[in-house]
Structure formats: structure tokens, C-alpha cells
């Protein structure tokens, strides 16, 4: 019971950040001197609110994973990645960030739930955007890996703490975890990705680099013949 309460309190604390940011942006809107500045602030408000709503929606899904609403089926992993990057394209461009995409997987279909897989990749890409700078670019790659299809997102942010890395190496996070060196939604986003991946019988993990982190999910390959082959 205590663990559940702590998880709820952590999620509430994490979701306060975008609400506080929207409040600050609203005050900034009143002081904007030009229509261009006002348009930029409005776009920021919409972007922050959209991402906060997605996290609330994802947290609701976690509570309903066992309700039979999220069936597993053959899914085109590249199509899901395309949808995620298309949705985040404006955000990357707006923040002067770049996302490099590389597909090399021969197995095109995986067993997953399309909605949950979208959220996993979305959370990883959002973290990459947040923790990469104008001098570096994030990388999304899809490749065959040890009998699975691996979706990996590389960022160039602060090192992932060793205790969080060990938990991910085990296969999932037990609860939302605060990551001091990676403020923002990183801890909550990783928890969401971990829960969804475990439900889909997929392996989630991280690779620590000297100049950043790669988060990945290894998805079971579908034996169904791909229409894209």
C-alpha cells in the first residue's frame, strides 16, 4: 500500500512540472511584445499541454492493462516509428533538435499492441529530444537483435544513474523513479515504457555511454508473413 501511495505521489509531483510551465508561459504571453512572440508562446503552451495529457492517458492505461483492452497482434514496427516521429517532428524542429532515423530490420512485423508500442517509443524519443542539444542529434534505429526486433533511441544527455540502469537491466522498473541527473519527465516516462513493454512480453533496457544513453525495447518477432516483404 505504501509503495502504491509513493508511486501516486511521485506521478503527481512529475505532472506538476508541465502545469507550472504552462502557468509561466501564460504570464509570458501577456508580456509578449510582438505577434510572432505570442504565436511562439501559444505553440509552447499547446505542446506542453499535449505531452502532459499523453502522460495522464498513459497512467490511466497502466491501471487498465489487465482489463483485456490491449490485445497483442502483429504490428509493423516501422509504421509505428514513422507515426511517432511524424508527431514529434514539429517539436524537434521547434526546439532546434534533430532526430536521425535508421531502419535495418529484416523482420518487419512484431507481436505488440500498437497503442502501447507507440507510447513506449514516444516516451523514449521525447527524452532524447529533451536531453540532446543543438550540437548533437538523437538517433532512432530499428534492427534485428538476438531473435527479436530492437527499437533503440540514443540521446546525448547526462549519464543514467547506475541503480536505474541495473533495474532496467533486470527488465523493468518497479515504480516511478526520480532521476536526479535527468530532471523532467524521464523517470515517469521510463516507468510507463517499462510497464507497457512488460505487458507486451518485450524487454526494455538501457545502454550507458560516456556521452549519453541508449534506451531500447526488444520486441518478439511475428511469424506472420509481412505484407511489406
List unreliable stretches of 5+ residues.
1-6, 180-185
Lateral arrangement of strands in the main beta sheet:
2-4-5-7-6
Q: What is the count of structural domains?
A: 1
Report how far apart the termini are: 49 Å
Give me the CATH architecture, please.
Answer: 2-Layer Sandwich
Largest sheet at a glance?
5 strands, mixed
CATH classification class: Alpha Beta
Shape: globular
Percent in strands: 15-25%
Count of distinct strands: 7
Textual characterization of the structure:
With 229 residues, the chain is α+β, with helices and mostly antiparallel strands. The protein has a single domain, classed as 2-Layer Sandwich (Heat Shock Protein 90). The chain has six helices and seven strands. The strands form two sheets. Strands 2-4-5-7-6 form a five-stranded mixed beta sheet. The longest helix has 30 residues, at 2-31. Residues 1-6 and 180-185 have low confidence and may be disordered.
Short description:
This protein is an alpha+beta fold and 229 residues long.
Essential attributes:
single chain; 229 residues; Heat Shock Protein 90; five-stranded mixed beta sheet; two-stranded antiparallel sheet; disordered N terminus
Write the layout of secondary structure elements.
Elements: H1 2-31, H2 35-63, E1 73-76, H3 77-94, E2 99-103, E3 109-112, H4 114-131, E4 138-145, E5 148-155, H5 162-170, H6 186-199, E6 203-209, E7 212-220
Helix pairs in contact: 1-2, 2-6, 3-4, 4-6
